[in-house]
Amino acid sequence: MSRTVSGARVLITGAAQGLGRLYAERAVAEGAAAVILWDRDSAALAATTAALVQRAAAGTQIAPYVVDISDLGAIAQTAQRVRTEVGDPDVVINNAGIARAALFWDHSNGEDTRATMQINGLAPMYITREFLPAMLTDASRESRIVNIASAAGVLNAPQLSVYAASKAAVIAWSDTLRLELVTEGYGHVKVTTVCPSYISTGMVAGLDHVPRSNWLMPRLAPAYVVDRVWRAMLAGSPMLVLPWTVGLARALRSVLPRPVLDALASGVGPSSARRRR
């Protein structure tokens, strides 16, 4: 893919606010042919759409869709509408997610555990499966899939057990998909798995008294994360871990004694709260 998404169709989930909106603004600024916005918040989506239309060049289509990605049927129906009304995307950014901080035994099975696994873990698979066949069939067309996971998927953090499980699932699936594409000769479709530490967005800010951060898991500025993800996506980088200390922490897991690892992990989880984004 070139150094921009100019002329490409870009689909972003969780696009109405936070990082999703920043990705959409980046696509508009680079002259994407279409910026396809998925979000379940109809009011926020309408506001974001209006703002993007004001910024978009004449050749850029802004295509908003209200969709709850925890619903497999809604994903399939909306994907069909996208194919009919806009065309298959060249870039899919699986950004939408939810986070609920609580001790595992305080999570409800339905509202907490099932919803977190469906939105964070299963929805990226369902959405990618909808649009991947068209990407595979046209080898002349560079395609990108970006899956936003989390450092929580590779590093333990108290009160984030379900969230961590959902993100670990994304990491395992996403990088395996990348490997399958490489081994099966579909090198024009590249998958980037993103594992950032805490990002200063509404999802984090709503947690009581942090989430706490330390030198291993510092807070990151949204604009910085979006820029790094965007550059990794264009380059087709397999994995992006932010910041470098998260990669160090992963390496330390294999050499440090368990009590030391537990002590480090206990300092990076949230205190107590629940928050959805």
Short description:
The chain is α/β, with parallel strands linked by helices and 277 residues long.
Structural description of this entry:
With 277 residues, the chain is of the alpha/beta class. It has a single domain, classed as Rossmann fold, CATH 3.40.50. Helix content is 46%, strand content 14%. The chain has a 7-stranded parallel sheet with strand order 3-2-1-4-5-6-7, with helices on both faces. α5 links the parallel β5 (143-148) and β6 (189-196). The longest helix has 29 residues, at 109-137. The chain is globular and about 60 Å long. The protein starts with 8 loop residues before the first strand and ends in a 12-residue tail after the last helix. 45% of the residues are buried.
Mind sketching the topology for me?
Blueprint: E1 9-13, H1 18-29, E2 34-39, H2 42-55, E3 61-66, H3 72-85, E4 91-94, H4 109-137, E5 143-148, H5 161-183, E6 189-196, H6 202-205, H7 222-235, E7 239-242, H8 244-252, H9 258-265
Parallel strand pairs: 1-2, 1-4, 2-3, 4-5, 5-6, 6-7
Strand content: 5-15%
Low-confidence spans: pLDDT under 50, at least 5 residues? 204-212, 271-277
Approximate helicity band: 40-55%
Number of domains: 1
Radius of gyration from CA coordinates: 18 Å
**CATH architecture annotation name:** 3-Layer(aba) Sandwich
Provide the structure class: alpha/beta
Mean pLDDT: 87
Task: Give the SSE order as H and E letters.
Answer: EHEHEHEHEHEHHEHH
Give the count of helical stretches.
9
What's the CATH H-level superfamily name? Answer: NAD(P)-binding Rossmann-like Domain
DSSP strand tally: 7
The main sheet orders its strands as 3-2-1-4-5-6-7
Instruction: Could you tell me the CATH topology label.
Output: Rossmann fold
End-to-end CA span = 31 Å
Described by strand count, sense and barrel closure, the largest sheet is: 7 strands, parallel
CATH top level assignment:
Alpha Beta
